[in-house]
Specification:
Oligomer: heterodimer
Mean pLDDT of chain A: 79
Shape of chain B: globular
Structural class of chain A: mainly alpha
Mean pLDDT of chain B: 87
CATH class of the largest domain in chain A: Mainly Alpha
CATH architecture of the largest domain in chain A: Orthogonal Bundle
Largest sheet of chain B: 2 strands, antiparallel
Shape of chain A: elongated
Number of helices of chain B: 13
Strand content of chain B: under 5%
Number of strands of chain B: 4
């Protein structure tokens, strides 16, 4: 921190800060330009600082030209900006022909660093908010030096935007960490306790370090204590963010699993149909989304982001139709023969996969997130929650609520439950069981289609999409307990959370294996799942 | 049922002997006649039939649990692959220093920068130790898994689904490079077995004949089991497990025995498969492969022992032909087979034969086939 080099890098800032009131000066004094062409490295760095200190647009232009190797010096001592075959005199702003014998001004790394630092410092005072923000980000990426502190303070004083102000304040504190004034260091350390992030750890740890002779690098004991406290606060915050992040991603994975498994909870859970083609219904939903996106891009390019609004009903209807056709043509002949249903539906899944492969090709297709779903919201300083994940959690909640309403508050739901509980009795009182079977299977399939829309927003859409989810979906339903919507929800969220908390410990693949083993063991203990229907039947 | 001491009727014995003889004749034709001679059987053909016999052995093993005990396993691919990996370990060590890196270690270990074999590779340079592993490892896995599953009376589709999860988990495990079994690529590029070059026609013939012998042996063993008292208990488990329990039998031991035996047979099939096909990788454990095995059994006719063998040959023959002639259509055909067989041919190919007999006027009345329940 005390090295000569960083001092030099920071020099332009110091100079700039001192000269801030002189912002409005326009032309650049040739005396400032002169040393740039010279051989003395210190003089050149100094010149850069002083040019930056004028704070004018011309200064920015000259420095940028220097950075882009467009600055030349003539033998007469003029400094010219050569751009597109034209030369501009940096001192006067006049356009000239490119003179013969002009030498490019060589920029070495040291000078380049100085110029870059000067430029980002200039940007802090730019009128456009975006420019200032990106300048702040650029400074955050480097380690701010105490010499930059005055400039940052100035910028902070001029700043009006609350967000940038906050970040600048933190930058000031970071810069002050290396200050020679102990009071300022202490203030900085204390200020950082509230908001500092993990990138500060090395700096703080350096304050706590001991010299080889046993004395502390930081002589002030109070400061050391404050640094220790800040360090602990930062670590605690990092850990809390980790836990919250894991929780969030667990819920997110849980909702993905839930959306994938919810349809199965109806077809397998309620109807007892082992539908191995369930994954392919998800895939059909995802491909319907892709088709909707393509149609929107082609016919309504202005509203391309709204394809999701069309994809949701479309995916539901397409998957519903496929489900109804499957039920009428194959599955209904196999009621009461679960193992054979399993084989037949596996055959269906192979055919569906191959159909999609024939129509859309074996390659994955690209489904883009709409603009409003890309990006994310930053919470608690450093935790980024992507919008698409949030949207899927919300979507999962809505779908579960809808399914619950359909099953519990509609006539169809009543019939479905009646047929499930006692098919013969339902038949006797006039429930059209065959039709109900068809509609229930269609409903389950349609929900799988909705799940497919959600999956298309997260990962690759390809013919094998469903295969990746089929085992997981069955695990969720079996874990939750067959025929139990609440069990499915709990099972999915539980699996999502366990997975996300195991991942950092064991790696993604081992986490998955652990979970499968866990489920296998769990089913041994509770063959009926989390929520067992109470009954007296032997089987 | 005919309780005579003979395993098969006289006619069945003749058919079995004839089939075995024809199968045994193939390698003789391969060796005796030069390339281009009309009676010559190509090495490709020999390899194909050898591979099918391994599949048939696996299908036979599956029929023992599914057809006779009513336990549908969707995870037999795991046992097949475990047997194959166990034998593959020996074959990898037998490569010696002939790998691309010239190291004693297999290429994939050199690639991972491992300095030594992990502990579980100990002694795998001994052929017979590996043969012991072929039987013991899958046997143990099946025993432990089966003990827990059957003890808590998991049955029907639940059992099927967790066997699928089991093989899926194992597949993920074997896909990892750190597991020490070659990751994605598995084992391949074998050079020799017991000092003989693995591509030598003599070695291939020996492997082929060993497979044939084990297949026929396994068929006889299974037939003997299902016709014994034990076999009748197994069928009792299949048809009415609760009733069997009320009579006083504990199905656990019976199920566990047949389950473990089936896994071991399947593993032996895998062990025979590896040197003939020359590669084993984790995709053998994918749930799709295990389900395909079930289809061989279903198509051939479950609960018949001979049916699965016929089914394995029929489906795989069809597959070889389709994937060469219409590669895009194979999955359609396979899918359709699944559906048609479950809908219209519940007894499989072997079930169709008596049906034809019944339709045609014959001197002897056909024996009524008992309805299989799941």
């Amino acid at each position: 921190m005390n090295s000569f080099l960083t001092r030099i890098f920071a020099a332009p800032f110091a100079a700039l800060a001192l000269c801030l009131p002189l912002l409005a000066q326009a032309a650049i004094d040739p005396a400032l330009l002169q040393p740039l062409a010279g051989d003395d490295p210190d003089a050149r760095v100094d010149a850069v600082a002083r040019i930056a200190a004028t704070g004018s647009a011309d200064a920015r232009q000259v420095l940028q030209a220097l950075l882009d190797d467009e600055l030349v010096a003539t033998q007469a001592g003029q400094v010219l900006i050569v751009h597109d075959g034209q030369a501009i005199d940096a001192a006067t702003g006049k356009t000239l022909a490119v003179p013969d014998g002009a030498d490019g001004i060589v920029v070495n790394n040291r000078l380049r660093g100085a110029v870059q630092a000067a430029l980002s410092g200039l940007a802090l005072l730019a009128p456009a908010r975006e420019t200032r923000l990106s300048a702040v980000h650029a400074l955050q990426a480097q380690d701010p030096d105490p010499a930059q502190a005055p400039l940052l303070r100035q910028a902070l004083a001029h700043e009006t935007d609350a967000d940038i102000k906050l970040q600048l304040a933190q930058l000031v504190a970071r810069a002050d960490l290396g200050s020679l004034d102990p009071a300022r260091r202490l203030a900085a350390v204390t200020a950082l306790a509230d908001r500092g992030d993990a990138s500060l750890r090395p700096q703080l740890q350096a304050m706590l370090a001991q010299n080889p002779d046993g004395s502390f690098v930081e002589p002030d004991a109070a400061l050391r204590a404050a640094a220790g406290a800040t360090l602990r606060a930062i670590d605690q915050r990092a850990m809390r963010n980790d836990v919250i992040g894991n929780l969030f991603y667990g819920v997110s994975l849980g909702s993905v699993l839930l959306l994938a498994a919810l349809g199965l909870a109806i077809t397998f859970g309620l109807m007892g149909i082992i539908n191995m083609a369930h994954g392919e219904l998800l895939m059909i939903g995802a491909y319907t989304t892709y088709v909707c996106q393509s149609l929107f891009r082609h016919y309504l390019p202005g509203a391309a982001d709204w394809y999701l609004a069309a994809a949701l009903p479309a995916a539901f209807l397409v998957a519903f139709a496929v489900g109804v056709v499957l039920e009428r043509s194959v599955i209904r002949w196999l009621y009461g023969r679960p193992l054979e249903t399993l084989l037949a539906t596996w055959g269906i899944s192979l055919m569906l996969m191959q159909t999609v492969r024939t129509v859309f090709g074996a390659q994955n297709v690209e489904v883009a997130n709409p603009a409003f779903m890309s990006g994310g919201v930053t919470v608690l300083g450093s935790l980024v929650l992507p919008y698409n994940r949030i949207a899927i959690i919300v979507f999962a909640v809505i779908v579960v609520a809808a399914v619950w309403l359909v099953l519990n508050k509609t006539r169809l739901g009543l019939f479905v439950r009646a047929v499930m509980q006692n098919r013969r009795m339902a038949d006797c009182v006039g429930v059209p069981t065959g039709r109900i079977d068809m509609l229930t299977f269609g409903l389950g399939s349609g929900i799988a289609g909705l799940g497919g829309v959600a999956l298309s927003q997260l990962g690759n859409v390809g013919p094998d999409l469903g295969q990746a989810y089929i085992v997981d979906s069955f695990m969720v339903v079996v874990l939750g307990g067959v025929g139990q919507l609440a069990g499915t929800v709990l099972g999915a969220l539980g699996l999502g959370e366990i997975n996300k908390f195991l991942e950092p410990l064991a790696g993604a693949v081992m986490a998955k294996i652990c979970i499968l083993v866990f489920i296998i063991v769990f089913i041994q203990r509770r063959p009926q799942g989390l929520f067992a229907l109470k009954g007296r039947s032997v089987e | 049922m005919n309780r005579s001491t003979s395993l098969f009727s006289r006619r069945a014995w003749v058919v079995l002997a004839a089939c075995t003889l024809v199968a045994a004749l193939l390698p003789v034709l391969h060796l005796a006649f030069p390339d281009g001679h009309p009676l010559h059987v190509s090495g490709y053909m020999l390899g194909l039939v050898g591979k099918f016999m391994c599949y048939a052995l696996a299908a036979l093993a599956l029929d023992l649990v599914w057809g006779y005990t009513g336990i549908l396993s969707l995870g037999h691919g795991l046992f097949f692959a475990l047997g194959a990996y166990a034998h593959g370990m020996y074959l990898m060590r037998a490569i010696g220093r002939d790998g691309s890196y010239g190291s004693v270690l297999p290429d994939f270990m050199v690639f991972l920068d491992w300095k030594d074999y992990p502990w579980y590779w100990a002694f795998t340079d001994h052929f017979w130790y590996c043969m012991l592993l072929v039987v013991l490892v899958p046997g143990l896995v099946a025993f432990v898994f089966g003990w827990f599953a059957f003890r808590s009376r998991i049955k029907g589709v639940y059992f099927s689904i967790i066997t699928q999860a089991l093989t899926y988990a194992a597949m993920l495990l074997f896909f990892r490079n750190d597991t020490g079994f070659g990751g994605n690529n598995g084992f391949t590029d074998f050079k020799r077995i017991l000092g003989h070059s693995i591509t030598d026609p003599g070695t291939r013939t020996t492997l082929y004949l060993a497979t044939l012998a084990l297949l026929v042996g396994a068929l006889l063993l299974c037939r003997w089991i299902v016709r014994s008292k034990l076999g009748r208990v197994l069928q009792g488990v299949r048809d009415a497990e609760s009733r069997l329990m009320f009579i006083g039998y504990d199905p656990l031991a019976f199920k566990l025995f047949v389950w473990t035996l089936s896994a071991v047979l399947c593993a032996i099939a895998g062990a025979l498969y590896v040197p003939q096909v020359g590669i084993i990788n984790p995709s053998e454990m994918s749930p799709a492969n295990s389900i395909e095995m079930v289809v061989w059994v279903a198509i051939g006719g479950r609960g018949t022992l001979v049916g699965p063998i016929v089914g394995a040959f029929a489906v795989n023959g069809l597959k070889s032909w389709f994937t060469a002639a219409f590669p895009d259509l194979w999955l359609f055909a396979l899918g359709l087979l699944f559906i048609l067989v479950t809908l219209f041919m519940r007894q499989g190919i072997l079930g169709v034969l008596p049906a034809i007999k019944r339709v045609l006027p014959r001197r002897r009345p056909a024996v009524a086939t008992t309805e299989e329940t799941v």
